[in-house]
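Field reference: sequence -> structure
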Amino acid sequence: MPTSFYYFGVRLRKWNGFLVRYNQNNILIHIAERRKTRSAFFRGRRVNIRMDTKAFRTRQEFHHEEHPGGKEFIIALDAGYSSIKAYYENGFFAFPSYARKIDNSMLQLFNKKDILYRDLETKEMYILGYSAQDMISSTETNDTYSESYARKRYGAKTFKILCNTALGIALERKNDDREIFIQTGLPSSYEEADKPDLIKALSKPSHFEIKVGERPWKEFDLAIKPENIDVMPQPAGSLYSVLINNKGAYMPGARDILFGNCLVMDIGFGTFDFYGIKGRAIACKESTDEMGMRRVLQSTCKKIMSNYSEDVRINALQRNLSTGFFTHLNEDEMKTEDVPLSPLLEEANQEIFEEAMEKARGITSSFRDYKYLIITGGTGAAWIDKIREYLKGMHTLQIIPGNVNDNNSMIYSNVRGYYLYRYAANKKK
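Structure field:
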């Protein structure tokens, strides 16, 4: 347990190898690495290790933006373990991959962040995204692993609900009779084996309605043709996102990257994917589980339990990432306190990062044969500065962020690449 002491009238706490400083109003003002002596904290040697925990929370956001269209209405869909992302003619968006069944009586008032889904055959209603996560108690275990994070989740009802909702949002502004084409992706090593199951799930007819925020309910009767669904390796999406500009044309330097031995490292929530090209041929298609943000958050939850005996699960932790604190209850004194999350998260993040890079070195032969390294994915965005520092001595290796051609988060690099690849391919027909 953390212990408190005062030094020259300033309240400090020893806490997991760090010193936490409060002002006279008992408000946290600083976190620093603990030195051998207390006075070192005040010698100008303080190391501010506070991190933005909000950057680690799964996003929910909607953006209107015009993209080139074609003969078919293309929807690029990235159904990730952590979030659903979509990119289409009129915009792009993301929301957490979490759905919770609710009773109609629970919704007397609507919130702007509510995403609602109603199955018009069963009349069941679900709430998705942030609002669903906000309903989770800290110790709740009702949501099964297979529904949320298992590789073979395509047959799960919640998976279909999440995908249907994303397709419905993308189709809200469609006002013509063009056929719908879905371009999506799978982890590199799973693409061939899982492709039939994914296409089967996405092409299953569905009759439903959705409501997003304060917008009215909108009904959909979807039946996507299986031949109108294409699947590629997920990291290839970011490769095309780097190669193709916003108008759907290849960048001037695309040939150099494509012909110059290129490796994509797609570091997501559940998988760390590798997609390498040497001599214009695919040289590496690997996926390693448990090396992304889920491991970081799992480790953080374990550290919370170890240090504070608080059992916080990953889905419940999402709220804590927004605030930067978790609540500790002293049951003997029946007192609660808000404990900063950042030191535990930073420690877990660094540990998993080092483990992941050792794994990457083994898979890529220490990057020795590559000229270009594309970093992408939500965890890739959180780690890119660490990766640059880790590889700073490799002057022959050029690091390229997956979002180099736009100003959006790297979480969209794959899905943007899906869309632009499909647009360019359909244009050639």
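Note: Residues 101 and 273 are 32 Å apart (CA to CA).
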